[in-house]
Design goal:
With 151 residues, the protein is α+β, with helices and mostly antiparallel strands. It has a single domain, classed as START domain (Alpha-D-Glucose-1,6-Bisphosphate, Chain A, domain 4, 2-Layer Sandwich), CATH 3.30.530. 25% of the residues lie in helices and 44% in strands. It has 3 helices and 7 strands; from the N terminus they run βαββββββαα. The chain has a 7-stranded antiparallel beta sheet with strand order 1-7-6-5-4-3-2, with helices on one face. The longest helix has 20 residues. The protein is globular, with a radius of gyration of 15 Å.
Length: 151
């Protein structure tokens, strides 16, 4: 199991950063290799990715979600991983977005990439693109304010 932890300061209020993050179907706009995401219901999401020519589909479940605080997930099928993203108030116009993800690299290519820090660089780039996207808009494209208790 490999763990990646990254954070970035985004110059928007916590509510704006959180609301944008809950728009899972927008992830392909800032996540490298994510081709499509379909939100099945409030807690289930289907992903389609293409990374280094390898196409994958998998499902995730939101295991905990609290507005303006955190979103946690785990894979339920396919590529095994779990993670949490948290939102921290720095000041009225700045939010620190912190992401922690645990993943199990599959096969020799992914294991080699993991040892070379490929996932860590990808996560850092994804957070940078999220920052650019939400700051350039100045507002979120939507938001889901529901609460999911830890399960």
């Amino acid at each position: 199991m490999s763990t990646v932890e990254e954070s970035i300061d985004v110059h928007v209020p916590v509510r704006t950063a959180y609301n944008q993050w809950t728009q899972f179907e927008e992830f392909p706009r800032f996540m490298e290799g994510v081709e499509e995401i379909r939100q099945i219901d409030d807690t289930h999401v289907h992903w389609r990715t293409k990374i280094a020519g390898v196409e994958r589909e998998f499902d995730t479940e939101i295991t905990e979600q609290h507005p303006d605080e955190r979103v946690a997930w785990r894979a339920t099928q396919g590529t095994q991983h779990a993670g949490v993203v948290t939102f921290h108030h720095i000041d009225d116009g700045t939010t620190r977005v912190m992401l922690q993800m645990d993943t199990e690299p599959e096969g020799i290519v992914e294991q080699a990439g993991d040892k070379l820090g490929v996932l860590k660089r990808r996560v850092k780039g994804d957070l940078g693109r999220f920052k650019e996207m939400v700051e350039s808009r100045g507002a979120e494209t939507g938001g889901w304010r529901g609460d999911v208790e830890n399960h």
